[in-house]
Each structure stands twice: as structure tokens, then as C-alpha cells.
């Protein structure tokens, strides 16, 4: 399996993880505020509403990973290490930039779908590092 293939698999797993977290946050939004009227309204909320702001670091990491995958340059093990480092920073308690992400994530981390999606991307990271 090439580095690109490994990163594509990781990107897909992170997308699923993001989707699960987003769905939990959406349900919470609808309870706190109002039902979301349309897919466009949902998109606008995700992009602009403070309720979804905590997910933006993960969204940004995923966008960067997709850019790396789409680059025409050869990919190396360093790209995998960089992705691992970025994910480690996102979850590191000493990295203050992502404290809001970790705080909000901690509210959802015990849901079975979140656990499953997280276990998938973590397993892929482990596979790529070994």
C-alpha cells in the first residue's frame, strides 16, 4: 500500500469521525435552539454558528490532509508523521490552541458511534507507524 493510499484511508476514517461528531453536535443544537430547516441552513450553521466552532480545528486538519493527498508531489513517510503529529496536537492537553475542541469532544467521546469512529482512525495511524 502506498503512502497516498494510507493517507486516503486515514482521510476517509477522519471524515467518518468528523461526521459522527457533527451529527451529535447537530442534535444538541436542535434541542438548544431550533430544528434545522434545510441542508443549506445546516451548512451555514456549521460554517458560521459558534455552536459548531469547536469542530473547526478537526475540519481544518482534514482539509489540509486532503490538500496533501491531492498534491502532485510524491508522498513520503514524513507526510504520515506530520498527520500523526497534527492529530496528537489536537488531543494533547498541553496544546492550549485546541482546548475548546477537547472540551466539547469529551462530552461526546463515550457514545458508541464516536468510540467506533475514533478507534478506526487511531488504528490506521498505528498501522502506518508500524
From TrEMBL:
Record protein name field: Uncharacterized protein
Organism: Deinococcus cellulosilyticus (strain DSM 18568 / NBRC 106333 / KACC 11606 / 5516J-15)
Domain of life per record: Bacteria
Phylogenetic placement of the source organism: Bacteria, Thermotogati, Deinococcota, Deinococci, Deinococcales
